[in-house]
Amino acid sequence: MSSAFYLVIAQTTNGKSVSCPYIDLSVPELVTQPELFDQRYFHRLLRQPAPQVFEFNVDRLDIPAWLREAVIYQIFVDRFTPIPGQPFADTQDLGAFFGGALRGITARLDYLSELGVNCLWLTPIFPAPSHHGYDPMDYFAIEPRLGDMADFQ
User: Domain check: are 93 and 48 in the same one?
Assistant: First the structure.
């Protein structure tokens, strides 16, 4: 079994390095607009000890053929594009739902193809209380505000 190992570091404007996704909220310049930050997640960011590394184990060394030629485009589904004819939500709250949807992605496949994209990486589309979906409640369903199984297929 082989391992892929990586460490993500963010560099602040004053040169301080911070391991991600755990941000030291005691450093004021890291939270420039606290009123827009999703207050529900402060407690998660303040967890101790905060892990500093992430490891993925894989059982093969070979990169699959399809991946060698892949041009991957990651889509944050709620923020990419809404259903055609529907506007995004008019909000300044970064923790709010903006209205992106699976049918919006389908409507933009030609655009993505023109960019040379041949592989999509979607952020979680499972039912979740958050806009980003990284706190799923059911791995076998689609978040209704993003669409349904027919939209996904």
Answer: no
Both 81 and 146 in one domain: the answer is yes
43 lies in the same domain as 81: no
CA nearest 76: which of 146, 135, 148? 146
Q: What is the phi/psi pair of residue 75, to 5°?
A: -120, 125
Torsion of CA 126, 8, 38, 51, to 10 degrees: 90
51 and 109: one domain?
A: no
Domain count, the chain: 2
Which structural domain range is residue 94 located in? 65-152
pTM of the full structure:
0.59
Q: Provide the residue-wise pLDDT of the chain in tens; the chain has 153 residues.
A: 444 444 556 666 666 666 655 444 455 544 444 444 444 444 455 555 554 555 556 666 677 888 888 999 999 999 999 999 998 888 888 878 888 999 999 999 999 999 999 999 999 999 988 888 888 888 899 999 999 999 999
The residues pairing with 5 across neighbouring beta strands, listed in sequence order, are 55
Q: Which residues contact 12 (CB under 8 A, 6 or more apart)?
A: 18, 27, 29, 30
